[in-house]
Write a structure and sequence with these properties.
The complex is a heterodimer of chains A (about 325) and B (about 325). Chain A is about 35% helix and about 20% strand. Chain A is built from 13 helices and twelve strands. In chain B, helix 5 packs across helix 6 and helix 6 crosses helix 7. Chain B has one domain: P-loop containing nucleotide triphosphate hydrolases (Rossmann fold, 3-Layer(aba) Sandwich). The longest helix of chain B is centred in the middle third of the chain and has 18 residues. Helix content of chain B is about 30%, strand content about 25%. In chain B, a hairpin with a 2-residue loop joins strand 4 and strand 5. Chain B is of the alpha/beta class. The chains are: A alpha/beta (about 325), B alpha/beta (about 325). Chains A and B meet through helix 1, helix 3, helix 7, helix 8 and helix 9 of A and strand 1, helix 2, helix 4, helix 7 and helix 8 of B. One adenosine-5'-triphosphate sits at the interface of chains A and B. The site of one magnesium ion has 4 residues of chain B, from helix 2.
Amino acid sequence: MERQQPVLEVRDLRTTFRSQGQSFHAIDGITFSIRQGETIGVVGESGCGKSVTSLSIMGLIKSPGQVSGGQILFKGKDLISLGKKELREIRGNRISMIFQEPMTSLNPVYTVGNQISEALKIHTKLGRSARKARTIELLQMVGIPRAEEIITDYPHQLSGGMRQRVMIAMAMACDPELLIADEPTTALDVTIQAQILELMKELQLKHNMSMMLITHDLGVVSEVCDHVIVMYAGMIVEKGPVREILDRPQHPYTQGLLASLPKNAKGNHRLNYIPGQVPPPLQWPAGCRFADRCPHVMDRCRREKPGLFAAGPASEAACWLVSEGGGEQHA
Amino acid sequence: MPNQSKAAAGTETLLEVSGLKKHYPIKKGVFSSTVGTVKAVDGVSFSIQRGETLGIVGESGCGKSTTARLVIRLLQETEGSIRFGGKELTSLAPSELRAVRRDMQMIFQDPYASLHPRWTIERTLIEPMLVYGIGSRGEQRDRVLELLDNVGLNRSYAKRYPHEFSGGQRQRIGIARALVLQPQLIIADEPVSALDISIQAQVINLLQDLQEQYKLTYMFISHDLSVVRHISDRVAVMYLGRIVELAEKEKLFETPLHPYTQALMSAVPEVAGDKKERIILRGDVPSPAKPPSGCTFHTRCASCMDVCKTDIPPLKEVGSGQLVACHLYA
Ligand SMILES: Nc1ncnc2c1ncn2[C@@H]1O[C@H](COP(=O)(O)OP(=O)(O)OP(=O)(O)O)[C@@H](O)[C@H]1O
Ligand SMILES: Nc1ncnc2c1ncn2[C@@H]1O[C@H](COP(=O)(O)OP(=O)(O)OP(=O)(O)O)[C@@H](O)[C@H]1O
Ligand code: SF4
Ligand SMILES: [Mg+2]
Ligand SMILES: [Mg+2]
């Protein structure tokens, strides 16, 4: 593939929060990039930092939390050092986000039509009636029946999946160059999910849009992503082309994740899962953060933190087992 | 209702819903005149045996959450009956309802909106025990820690507030809250949709363990068919406010009869690289305000016949014990 400048480049990002008088890194040094027209999937255990990563990119971390280190380059410009006004032009206009919980980002006191129309007002030059027509069109695109009636409804009058689709319609309102979608289809049944994913792919082709797709659904990852990032406890533990990661996962955490799929259990037998819990940020061990749950843990894992090593033809994994297999450390 | 084989044999019906309807008036204009009705739930009947899990699946907006909210009495029905443990809930006095509510808990689809933003997790979990006067202060605290362990949340999180959690962590708080009072029936609305698969597996194992231990009964709403297949005894498929198929899990997944169920089954994304044949549903999702005549699925059905456009197919048993509402099996 021809090497072009990535649309988004995240370098050694760190995001810090304070809770009960202590501060901690929720994101602890992650590096990745997304090229034009590419879709990157982000997977990882609940609480590992996927949403915080996307909120950091969007500049939406609320005080007392903050991005405390690293760079976020959008087409070469560092978003962290950008002024409020410049940032506003990029965020929501050239980068759009679909949030994980629709109710946290839809305003309960405005109608659905108002909210989409407002987004169009900020980001396009459309007049009033053109905005209304476009709003209805967007809602129809995401498969909402009776769109003309829904625009006068308030968010609480919609079903969970309808709210999620309103969010998607809003994010697409301004033809973004980069779309960050945080679990965009979790509340959707499979037929509508298929339809939405199809729509995203279409838009991607049409506008050469790049996408960062956070999801725990590995089936979705398999169908729409080019590359995958696997996160664990605030770090990237494995990344690479989608088929390499899903077919031959090298990190024990990724392997455990794939083994937990319900279809890998038969009938009413118990499901496989990775025993133990992700340690909370303040209890991260000095060595590999997966060590306490890893079936292959060695002495070295508890002492030293593994960097990313070449694991497959184009993939990398942060695991000492992989390093012993002859890989060389990248980071 | 026609007999429901295995699950029904020798057990007791815990929940029986019949002819349940919820219609919302559509109000428009300055005078808020009613210009139509949204038939969110339009004549739903099913029953759940004690200790059984009934899965409910169906297209977004088909009325799953509304059905759940009606059963748990967060919504007033337009019509129909809901019997829980032999009591008719639709005519119960508020004081009697309070006692029943303790035995019925719901895990909400949107965890953020259902948690009190200014309460710590500990407070949220202790509240139901306070309301019903259960346990000493110390016992209540111990119970909170036990619940956090159960749902795989670190004990140190007890003193944190909802906004300090990730989406999946909040969902688990919602599950813990439903378990506090050890209810008889849990209505779970997309309880694991925000969880990664490993934690999803832990939570599902937990729900199954609790079911075995306490003979818990679940009404389990989810669009994740592999999860539904794993956890349910029987599954109901809804479309536009009605049940179109209801059958034992294995039968439903191996030989789905209703054309909508068939399309649903074929749309599941696969982790393996090879793509499979998909039945793509053509046509727009119809509006519950103007449901199509006859079989409401006829506008999108590949097997649509003339009779489908005029006559509503009743939900009835076909040879294999499956209940299906489709003229193909008449
Ligand atoms: N505002 C906040 N204050 C304190 N801690 C926070 C805050 N927001 C997130 N965290 C913590 O940061 C960590 C990462 O959270 P994040 O929301 O990124 O997880 P996630 O990977 O998106 O998980 P999920 O799959 O459950 O949505 C979690 O441990 C969470 O508790
Ligand atoms: N308060 C309300 N006023 C008007 N219509 C409503 C109201 N609440 C729900 N509806 C409508 O009822 C229908 C069913 O909604 P419900 O929330 O039960 O769907 P659902 O099956 O749970 O969908 P999802 O899978 O998306 O969560 C939807 O068309 C919705 O717009
Ligand atoms: S580094 Fe060690 S502990 Fe960590 S995943 Fe690899 S083998 Fe397991
Ligand atoms: Mg998240
Ligand atoms: Mg719902």
